[in-house]
């Protein structure tokens, strides 16, 4: 018996009744499974939205913690800046004192050179006067 003989064995009405019965048996389960699948998909979308929301909150929390860590460092940086400012002020003050001292020393050197030149000129004049006077 081949498959065409088997189909002829059942009448078309019987085949239609069997098909209808088969569909009537399975259709409620298929509808239930389809509804459950739709519900599951909806719950999955809700869960994904919730997970994304939590992830965003976590990222925001992590960023907030980073910002808080930076804010905690501000007093340390402020103190470092104040120390640097004090050091710069001290160096500036010492530099000005050294410049004043250097100027005074320069003036003193110029004064000594001038006095030395005058003293030398005075001696030369005295020697010239002594040389110019005839001995008696």
From TrEMBL:
Superkingdom assignment: Eukaryota
Ranges in a coiled coil: none
Gene Ontology cellular component list: BLOC-1 complex; transport vesicle
Transmembrane segments annotated in the record for this chain: none
InterPro entries referenced in this protein's UniProt entry, alphabetically: Snapin/Pallidin/Snn1
Protein name in UniProt: Biogenesis of lysosome-related organelles complex 1 subunit 7
Natural source organism: Amphimedon queenslandica (Sponge)
């Amino acid at each position: 018996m081949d498959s065409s003989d088997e189909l002829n064995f059942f009448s078309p009405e019987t085949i239609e009744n069997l098909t209808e019965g088969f569909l009537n048996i399975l259709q409620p389960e298929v509808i239930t499974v389809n509804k459950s699948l739709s519900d599951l998909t909806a719950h999955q979308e809700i869960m994904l939205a919730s997970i994304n929301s939590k992830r965003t909150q976590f990222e925001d929390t992590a960023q907030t913690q980073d910002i808080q860590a930076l804010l905690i460092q501000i007093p340390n940086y402020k103190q470092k800046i104040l120390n640097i400012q004090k050091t710069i002020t001290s160096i500036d003050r010492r530099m000005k004192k050294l410049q004043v001292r250097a100027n005074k020393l320069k003036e003193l050197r110029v004064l000594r050179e001038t006095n030395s030149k005058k003293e030398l000129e005075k001696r030369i004049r005295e020697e010239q006067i002594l040389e110019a006077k005839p001995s008696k």
